[in-house]
């Protein structure tokens, strides 16, 4: 623990520090380096303790805990998903996370993860597309132009070379915002008036809408041969984006089947419908895209190892940038078993200060 030297403090990365960290590293470099760490961790999949995330569902949303460990480090993320939140000025998705030392159980990092989740989701999507999309892919439709959308666009540009975007959102103001935010980055951008228009002629389709229901953002006739679908928005029981017939025509790739079968697009299919795990593709144990005409589908729900990788990456940047503060989070009595005595000494010190002041 080079910089976490005090036994009572934990390095804390606030939203302000996260933004400065991302900008100091550079958004494209951050996405590329993060993608490498995510891929590196997928390649050592067997070393991780894995469990489907623990979800607490309510009528308007979900709160989830996402833990994992590689035996040396332990990480978890707290994340919510509440599609109606934006109407009250809140984010649909907000998150924070912790990375700890398995050897002594002490937290080594507490970080905001709302921005980090957008970055890690986009980096994961783009890494996966490198294995599954056609090598000559340059154009992408983005359906759903909310908080995640620009991050997806930037990751696909810096990792996959995507430079042509077709945008669609049921709220035209969201598409206008997305286009404005991506100006000057070398994209050719068209705002479309329907999802059908947006997917015409593109090699990659990203669906990243928020709606707490089984929606049909894409119907079967909208997906032609050779397309790669990056389905990000369907990530809860009863919350999907694709018509079932698309799934039946696609080769489906998932993060962790026990979680995706409950939360992903494949909740619409039989429990034993064949899927390929990403780690197998990344280690060469299974094929990614094998033909020009194949339809590939990344049924993304977001898995704990991706957040673990993101926390690990952020921590690796702290010492050089100093973009964190020390949070007084851990009790540190002079003698470890004298926790109560520490409270008494605090009381005595408060009393003597009060006596001095009177
Ligand atoms: N797979 C993952 O790892 C992962 C990670 C983060 C977020 N997500 C999911 O991605 C989705 C988007 O998240 P966000 O933070 O961008 O949400 P957001 O609320 O900021 O944006 C969602 C956008 O989708 C649009 N939309 C809703 N229904 C639509 C439809 N039928 N057609 C076109 N557009 C539609 C909304 O108008 C809005 O602009 C959420 O469902 C979230 O749960 C998944």
TrEMBL record:
<dbReference type="InterPro" id="IPR003462">
    <property type="entry name" value="ODC_Mu_crystall"/>
</dbReference>
<keyword id="KW-0456">Lyase</keyword>
<dbReference type="Pfam" id="PF02423">
    <property type="entry name" value="OCD_Mu_crystall"/>
</dbReference>
<dbReference type="GO" id="GO:0008473">
    <property type="term" value="F:ornithine cyclodeaminase activity"/>
</dbReference>
<keyword id="KW-0520">NAD</keyword>
<dbReference type="InterPro" id="IPR036291">
    <property type="entry name" value="NAD(P)-bd_dom_sf"/>
</dbReference>
<protein>
    <submittedName>
        <fullName>Ornithine cyclodeaminase</fullName>
        <ecNumber>4.3.1.12</ecNumber>
    </submittedName>
</protein>
<dbReference type="InterPro" id="IPR023401">
    <property type="entry name" value="ODC_N"/>
</dbReference>
<comment type="similarity">
    <text>Belongs to the ornithine cyclodeaminase/mu-crystallin family.</text>
</comment>
């Amino acid at each position: 623990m080079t910089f976490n030297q005090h036994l009572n403090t934990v390095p804390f990365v606030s939203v302000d520090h996260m933004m400065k960290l991302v900008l100091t590293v550079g958004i494209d470099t951050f996405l590329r380096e993060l993608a490498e760490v995510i891929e590196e961790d997928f390649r050592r999949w067997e070393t991780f303790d894995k469990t489907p995330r623990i979800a607490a569902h309510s009528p308007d949303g979900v709160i989830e805990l996402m833990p994992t460990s590689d035996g040396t480090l332990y990480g978890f993320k707290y994340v919510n998903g509440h599609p109606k939140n934006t109407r009250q000025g809140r984010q649909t998705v907000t998150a924070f996370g912790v990375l700890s030392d398995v050897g002594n159980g002490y937290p080594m990092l507490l970080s905001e993860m709302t921005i980090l989740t957008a970055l890690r989701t986009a980096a994961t999507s783009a890494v996966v597309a490198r294995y599954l999309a056609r090598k000559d892919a340059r154009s992408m439709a983005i359906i759903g132009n909310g908080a995640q959308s620009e991050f997806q666009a930037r990751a696909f540009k810096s990792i996959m070379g995507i430079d042509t975007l077709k945008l669609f959102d049921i709220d035209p103001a969201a598409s206008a915002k997305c286009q404005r935010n991506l100006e000057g980055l070398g994209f050719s951008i068209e705002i479309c008036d329907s999802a059908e228009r947006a997917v015409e002629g593109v090699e990659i389709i990203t669906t990243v809408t928020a709606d707490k229901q089984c929606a049909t953002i894409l119907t079967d006739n909208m997906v032609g041969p050779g397309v790669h679908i990056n389905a990000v928005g369907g990530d809860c029981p009863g919350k999907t984006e694709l018509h079932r017939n698309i799934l039946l025509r696609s080769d489906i790739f998932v993060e962790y089947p026990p979680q995706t079968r409950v939360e992903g697009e494949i909740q619409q299919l039989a429990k034993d419908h064949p899927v390929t795990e990403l780690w197998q593709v990344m280690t060469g144990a299974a094929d990614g895209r094998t033909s020009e005409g194949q339809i590939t589908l990344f049924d993304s729900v977001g898995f704990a190892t991706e957040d673990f990788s993101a926390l690990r990456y952020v921590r690796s940047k702290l010492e050089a940038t100093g973009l964190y503060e020390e949070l007084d989070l851990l009790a540190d009595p002079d003698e470890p078993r004298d926790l109560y005595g520490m409270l008494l000494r605090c009381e005595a010190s408060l009393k003597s200060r009060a006596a001095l002041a009177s």
